[in-house]
Amino acid sequence: MLVEFWADWCPPCKMIAPILEEIAAEYRDRLTVGKINGDEHTDIVTRYGVMGFPTMNLYRDGEVVHRIVGARSKRRLLAELADHF
């Protein structure tokens, strides 16, 4: 599962949102994509050590196996995730 931590006021979050929607649709058989509003869920942000938005955590068996901080192009994001799913 890929979880994006985001905020309404975050321009890079708005930029990456459609990319994550595309990835969720294209890889739905192998990857679940979710979003957590960091301003509304500060306890979760703190628990996972999120220091900026957007942050995307890739989870396997409940553990973070990869973290990406900042917006990426679709190609670059998929390249960073390729070894994990």
Automatic annotation (TrEMBL):
Keywords: Disulfide bond, Electron transport, Redox-active center, Transport. InterPro entries: Thioredoxin, Thioredoxin-like_sf, Thioredoxin_CS, Thioredoxin_domain. Pfam families: Thioredoxin. Residues 1-85 form the Thioredoxin domain. Belongs to the thioredoxin family. This is Thioredoxin family protein. It comes from Actinomadura rugatobispora.
